[in-house]
Specification:
- The chain contains 7 helices and 13 strands.
- It is an alpha/beta fold.
- The protein folds into 2 domains: 139 residues, 2-Layer Sandwich (Nucleotidyltransferase, domain 5), CATH 3.30.420; 109 residues, ATPase, nucleotide binding domain (Nucleotidyltransferase, domain 5, 2-Layer Sandwich), CATH 3.30.420.
- Strands 1, 2, 3, 4, 5 and 8 form a 6-stranded mixed beta sheet that branches. Strands 11-10-9-12-13 form a 5-stranded mixed beta sheet.
- Strand 9 and strand 10 form a beta hairpin.
- It is globular and about 65 Å long.
- The two termini are 33 Å apart.
């Protein structure tokens, strides 16, 4: 399998593109459509269909969708950035209905993290790898030996000082409280030291818009594992969603082959 298709759904825009699975690069320019003002599951799914139809991938190309919500056994458990009707929706069924093909739907932080782990800052490193996104909160994705541990929420970890990690050290906190780089780095060290204590990491990757200023704060952190900025930037979600869709397709193909082999044995 050489190609897959990735879509990244956000609160303001939905973007997608085919992805070269060998290099992790986009094939051509990504296509973006604003997220519908009334962002119900049906309206968003219809927009996703427009993006897929724009590229018209062959039926055998796996499609992955990154969604800003936890996706557990295909179902959304809560939603912050889109319409409330998403909660309780089986999104794999929803997108399969609209696109007429199997679709793998994953949390957006997981998609971006998996993209970084496989093709970005952690390429070639087996793991365990933690990808964090510093923004309004602290998003997280854990990849161990190329396997994603889905739906982690390490940003909600309670620190020894009694504060929730993202309430103590998200980049939004730095801005709101007017913290210097040194003051903020001290708070980040409180957070990452706990992550390391619990996870025994080989690498930490820092993403989010503020990662462009990584030279101002990463050198100030003292961590056991190397800590580096993310490299895939705004394409990470698309690339990760495509890669996870390809992986899911391989697993489905293997399961079907095993089931066929079992049936043949029974007939003998």
């Amino acid at each position: 399998m050489k190609t897959a298709f990735g879509i990244d759904i956000g609160g303001s825009g939905i973007k997608g593109a085919p992805v070269n699975l060998k290099t992790g690069s986009l094939i051509g320019k990504r296509y973006r459509i604003p997220t519908p003002e009334v962002s119900t599951p049906e309206n968003v799914a219809a927009t996703v269909k427009k993006i897929v139809d724009h590229f018209d991938p062959s039926p055998g190309i796996p499609v992955g969708v990154a969604l800003p919500a936890p996706v557990i056994h295909g179902e959304v458990t809560w939603m912050a950035n889109l319409h409330g009707d998403w909660v309780g929706t089986n999104v794999e069924t929803l997108f399969r209905t609209y696109l007429g093909r199997d679709v793998t739907v994953v949390n957006d932080a997981d998609a971006a993290g998996y993209g970084e782990a496989e093709y970005g800052a952690a390429k070639g490193i087996p793991g365990p790898i933690l990808v964090t996104t510093l923004g309004t909160g602290i998003g997280s994705a854990l990849v161990v030996n190329h396997e994603l541990v889905p739906n982690t929420e390490f940003g909600h970890l309670t620190l020894p000082n009694g504060k929730e990690a993202e309430h103590w050290a998200a980049s939004s906190v730095k801005e709101r409280e007017g913290l210097s780089w040194e003051e903020w780095a001290a708070r980040l060290e409180d957070v990452y030291s706990q992550f390391e204590l619990l996870l025994n990491l080989d690498l930490i990757i820092v993403g989010g818009g503020i990662s462009k200023d990584a030279n101002n704060f990463l050198p100030l952190l003292k961590t056991r594992a190397p800590i580096v900025p993310a490299t895939l930037k705004n394409s990470a979600g698309i690339i990760g969603a495509a890669a996870l869709a390809a992986r899911a397709a391989r697993i489905r193909d293997l399961a079907e082959a095993q089931a066929t082999a079992t049936k043949k044995k029974k007939k003998r």
